[in-house]
Amino acid sequence: MIVQWSKEARLDVEKALEYGLSFGRAAVSRFSKEIDDVQDLLEQNPKLGFVDSSLLNKAHIYRCLILRRYKVVYYLDEEKDVINIVAFFNTWQNPDKLMDYIE
After folding, report:
1. Cβ-count burial of 70 within 10 angstroms (0-12 exposed, 13-18 middle, 19+ buried)?
2. Exposed (0-12), middle (13-18) or buried (19+): which is 9, by Cβ within 10 Å?
3. What does the alpha-carbon distance between residue 103 and residue 92 come to, in Å, rounded to a whole number?
4. Per-residue pLDDT of the chain (103 residues; tens, 9 = 90+)
5. Whole-Å CA distances, 72 to 20, 24, 65, 78, 82
6. What pTM was computed for the model?
């Protein structure tokens, strides 16, 4: 399957990496690699993430993976053979904000 990132998810990744610069370039490099690794894992095993019960009333079945303090939220479009990552959500935020990302 191919992984596609929403514009909002990409912006969240950029914000996370910018914040990481306060810990140094090496930390950002490691975190960026971890994000790439998550994408690779999803390509190999799209159903790896857990189904998020808080999002069951939405248009898709959303799955999540946790990476450090971030929740990678995605759904599968099996007809198109695509994994759609819709949010890279900082779990230190109010959980209700996640609903703003999700259809």
Report:
1. buried
2. buried
3. 22
4. 899 999 999 999 999 999 888 899 999 999 999 999 999 999 999 999 999 988 888 889 999 999 999 999 999 999 999 999 999 999 999 988 888 778 7
5. 17, 23, 5, 19, 15
6. 0.92
One-letter amino acid identity for 66? I
Domains and CATH numbers, the chain: 2-92 (3.30.2310.20)
Report the alpha-carbon distance of residue 42 to residue 37 in Å, rounded: 9
Q: Which residue has the tokens 């808080």?
A: 54
Q: Which two tokens stand for residue 79?
A: 């007809």
d(CA 35, CA 62): 19
Euclidean distance between CA atoms 14 and 35, whole angstroms = 11
Tokens of 35: 């994000």
